[in-house]
Automatic annotation (TrEMBL):
Transmembrane segments: none annotated. CDD domains: HTH_XRE. Signal peptide: none annotated. Residues 12-66 form the HTH cro/C1-type domain. This is Helix-turn-helix transcriptional regulator.
């Protein structure tokens, strides 16, 4: 039996897009360079809690619904060896 229901999380990029912001607009409002935001969207585990709260304010989206963990890239194996 499940006693609680966790809300799904969306990516940092999805939160920005849902807020209707471009990389340039969002980075200005957050107070960072656009290259930093690009880096954070690729690796959200780099975002410190202070910046997470600022992103929450700018995107008007709760931080507990944005994924700020490490991303893992899966590659498919096309090998027929085994």
């Amino acid at each position: 039996m499940v006693l609680f229901h966790e809300m799904p999380q969306i990516t940092l990029k999805a939160a920005r897009v849902n807020a209707g912001l471009t990389i340039m607009n969002a980075s200005k409002l957050i107070g960072i360079s656009h290259s930093t935001l690009v880096k954070w969207e690729a690796n959200p585990g780099l975002v410190s809690p202070i910046w997470q709260r600022k992103i929450q304010q700018v995107y008007n989206f709760p931080i507990n619904h944005i994924f700020f963990g490490e991303t893992v890239e899966f590659k498919s194996s096309d090998s027929e060896d085994g």
